[in-house]
Amino acid sequence: xxxxxxLTVYSTTWCGPCKRxxxxxxxxxxxxxxxxxxxxxxxxxxxxxxxxxxxVVPTVLLSDGTALTNPSVAQVKAHxxxxx
Length: 84
Prior knowledge:
Layout: E1 7-11, H1 16-27, E2 33-36, H2 41-50, E3 59-62, E4 67-69, H3 73-83
Parallel strand pairs: 1-2
Antiparallel strand pairs: 1-3, 3-4
C-alpha cells in the first residue's frame, strides 16, 4: 500500500469519473488524499494551473510533482511504480 502523502486526488462531490477513480484506488489498496476543489479555492487554482485554465477533475498529483488529468487506475499505478 502506498503512503497517503504520495497521491492527492482533486475532485468534486458530483463528478462521476472522480467517484470511479477513487473507488478503483480503494479497491487496489492505494491510499490517497482527496481535496474537493469546490470547497478549497486554492485547490481549484492548482487544478486550473495544470489544465490550461480548466477545472478538470479528477486531477491527480503525485509526490514527484507529476499531475495526471482524468487518469485511469492503471496509469496511476504505473506512475506510482515508477516512483517506488
